[in-house]
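Notes, Module 5: Reading structure tokens.

Key idea: the token line is not a picture. It is a compressed description, and you learn to read it the same way you learned to read a sequence, by spotting repeated patterns. We will look at two proteins. The first is printed below with its tokens.
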Amino acid sequence: MKKLLLSILFIVHVTWVTGQACPRLSSPANGSIEVPVNTTISWPPVPGIIGYLVSLGTTPGGVEILGRRSAGLRNSYTPEVGLPENTTIYVTIELFLSNGQLVICPSESFTTEEVTTPPPCTTLAEPADNQGNISVKSEIIWTYAPTATGYRLTIGTSAGASNLLDDFDVGNVLTYNPTGDFPQDSDIFVTITPYNENGDAGSCIEESFTTGNAVVDCNAYFDPVMGEIVPRKPESNFPGQIGLCRNEIPTRIGTDDTADGYRWFKINEDGTEFLLSSTSEVLLSEVGPYRYEAYNFVEQGGETFECGISKDFNVVLSEIAQITSVSTSQEVNGRQIKVEVSGLGDYEYALDNIEGPYQNSGIFNGVSEGTHTIYVNDRNGCGIKERIIERELSPDDFPKFFTPNGDGINDFWQYIAPRERNEIQLSFIQVFDRYGVLLVQIMPNSRGWDGTFNGQPLPASSYWFKARDNLNNEIQGFFALKR
């Protein structure tokens, strides 16, 4: 008998969202027991938000079962392959507000039933039983069998045959993509057997579909007239993630792909798709999963076909970086600049060139003296933030010696402002003898120190100084008085 109980913890930080509190679980109710493993988790809709994220794990805040899956604006989630029995599962719901704020919403729990019987049989979803003219490249998809923890597939070209796949365990998934094409113009017979630790579903009904003939070749071909390989499908470098910029909702995005036609789809929680646009641009206002298609028309056998590419991509909330601090330090191999930022974006950093190269870290080592510019780019496309790093105060900005002998040459010791543009301003300069006695404090805008103390000239020797700038950076160094 299994001892481990399954409870689901629904984490929500108590936050008011557009006039409404974070929702409480609707079904199953808080404290429910013996909940089916194929239950649907639902909660009241929250007005004024732009999407939900759902995570499932075996520890609070865990994501090893489901990692921040977008539910769009649907206020429910049904685990595609069910929930484990007698296991503690933690559910975290996150709310995206229209102003870009991310809210983590209070904890509630329920306990699932203990499964003691094998699962029922399942049925083909795609291709459907007895469906004809199926592509030889088709993927097999079936419906979830409640309480199943895995499936075995047998596929053959005649009833009861297993010449294509023999009782193969595909695990706890609902799809199978064959390693090769199905034979053309053939009957394909499929048996799917769900199982769990109590056994399998027994003798499940064999289903079948019929493949058609290949109608178009979308592969690239060699054109002898042009003397080069010509692609039939569009070439694409469309990214797998797009940023929905926090201050630009809705956001219009487009593609640079060259094609005869385009389609943009929003993928719903149940796997269905909604067509958003049939042009090279689309207007996005929600986070979550989407699909992009680009296709070319190909003439073959007197008919026109589409040869296209399809790419799934995810829309995430993002924003331009806010540079919170920039610090510099002197290291063995030169100056180090460290940049700290905040924001929802995915950021990269460049020094002195807005075109890059960019790096993942905000730390730059071995930087030369002088003025530099830091660039912080949001990889999701929401913009670049820049900050000028002014040249710092250096001991080299002060003379190494002076000769106060009254000849009008080098008679005063004073700070030498650098030639390049900068905003360094000194608050004070102090001069000490070798024993640490303060001799004089001079202002940066004065003529400087004339080598005297209490009106008396000091001897030729080494002296040291301390200076502080407007950024509260303090330096010290040595110089010589020569007579």
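Here is the second protein, with the sequence above and the tokens below, as before.
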Amino acid sequence: MSIGRRVFEFLKMASQEHARWDYETSMSILKNRKKMLILLAMLVPILAVSFLEAGDMIGGKTAYAPAFYSTNIFLVSIAIGLCAGLITGCIGAGGGFIITPALMAAGVKGILAVGTDLFHIFAKAIMGTAVHKKLGNVSVKLAIAFLVGSAGGTFIGGALNKALYDYDPLMSEAFISLVYAVLLGFLGFYALADFLKSRKSADTGDAHGGSSAGLNELSQKVQKFSLAPVIRFDEDIVPGGRKISGVVVALGGVVVGVMAAIMGVGGGFITFPMFVYVFGVSSMTTVGTDILQIIFTAGLAAVSQYAIYGYVFYTLAMGMLLGSLIGIQVGALTTKVVKGIHIRGFYAISIIAGFINRAATLPKKMVELEMINLSKDLVQTIESVGNVIFWVVVAFFAAWVIGKFIMNINKLRGEDEAVAPVLVKEEA
């Protein structure tokens, strides 16, 4: 298997695991009446501020927020959350990757989009994660080593974003767009090739394979690296357990923390494949650790690196949370009435649309930074075309999913109750 293919499989698994966490967390909120009431109570003051359209909040170069709150920006945030939720619920991957690009495409500054997305993830994690149900398999030593690293990583990534913004806001925008363009471009085009290949084969895309906790060649080499302190784990799964250097685990945490703080994601999309395929940790142990790290990493990055500097737009965060809860529910139900091959195709297209949107902004940013020399009309046209492509693809996908849902609503009512009543109180 080529290196590129290995990286794609890693990122694909990462995207799927983040979607799985997002779905479970959202369902935990939706099925619990108390949590829904708390969410509504949190929305009341934010809605009041939005509809009153308050005056200037924060301005200047070192702390940025919109000059005013408006009803329109709140509705836009709900729409973005809805679309991301539809992608997550229906496709099972990818929704979290388009939130920051979508916010930037809607006109939100990159650093504010990153901070707001992190706060949205943190709020969802705190409200929806039933930690006590899944912590039985957590290795405390592994968790501590990883969280020490991810904490350092959030400070590195956050400091880098803030330093670029303080030096030149345009450079910050270009950097965030470049990171997303590279990631989404690589993942999107590999996914498209995978989809086109599957169409020619007997693979319908309806089956979803699970992950293996067995040791591969890479994880065997990593576990042989015995730099102190050495941590033992999975004693209840493997006789005598396995062991790994705490330094290696901490370095992995640094990578996750940096990516989370730069991209505005919780880090969970990298943690699962890193633990299973690089560290050789069992899936059961990984799940519990992943829950802890998302709460810790997203919370630390959102609060210490963005919120206290004014880089979080709370109206947007709550709007996205509300929209994503609805979207995930509708998307998950729709998977029962659409073919898997169609879902796989939309996954590739949605990721590529995000890539086109971010890549199309780069020429204009580079001209403004005086790195290249192109006409303003040309770069403006490129950016506008990228924006139109992105919103057309997202709108078409949303309309397709919602249309399928409405046309099959009677059929879906007869399905089992595992994903149906939205506000039924969660059983103890």
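Summary for the second protein:
- Residues 3-136+169-211+300-413 form one domain.
- Residues 59 and 179 are 26 Å apart (CA to CA).
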